[in-house]
Design brief:
6 strands; single chain; 165 residues; alpha+beta; four-stranded antiparallel sheet; 5 helices; 2 domains; two-stranded antiparallel ribbon; Arc Repressor Mutant, subunit A
């Protein structure tokens, strides 16, 4: 079991600000959350060490990089034993088009977020890799039309404290 970390309003403000702009300096972050730089840095390091801040990454514009197709695939397996679920989950790491993979509790077993340069590449992946994979029973795809919302993963209203664990 993970250690419980108590988060106060300053911690939540730090998380909200970093989620919106992970590149800001510690001085800017401290200013935005209303504390001085040294305790702000200590708090950020504590949040990182506790695993609440899991990492930092750049958000890339897929279309400017020639990746025109964004799609989601719902994948159902023939057998859902723990071993089979782990095998399929592991297999997703070898597919560069799959950017995120989630085990889900709907009619399917996995939801894959895929990005491809064109429809043909995506189609080839679905037909030659995904549906051809051992234990895959069904694949339903949804091509996206346009992104209509892009927020951080956690909504913060700034008024509450919480515990994680």
């Amino acid at each position: 079991m993970k250690d419980t970390v108590e988060l106060d309003s300053i911690d939540l403000a730090i998380l909200r600000e970093l989620q919106n702009d992970g590149r800001m300096t510690n001085v800017e972050l401290a200013s935005r959350v209303g504390i001085s730089a040294p305790p702000c840095l200590r708090r950020v390091r504590r949040l990182e060490e506790a695993g609440i801040i899991a990492g930092y990454r750049a958000i890339l514009d897929t279309t400017r990089l020639g990746q025109e197709i964004v799609a989601f695939c719902l994948v159902g397996l023939h057998h859902q034993s723990d071993a089979e679920l782990k095998v399929f989950a592991s297999r997703t790491s070898g597919w560069p088009l799959v950017r995120e993979a989630w085990m889900v509790s709907v009619d399917s077993d996995f939801l894959l977020h895929c990005v491809a340069p064109d429809f043909r590449t995506f189609q080839d992946f679905v037909l030659e890799e995904l549906t051809a994979s051992e234990n895959v029973d069904t694949v339903r795809t949804a091509l996206t039309i346009r992104k209509v919302k892009d927020e951080g993963l956690i909504a913060f209203d700034g008024s509450e404290t919480t515990e994680t664990g």
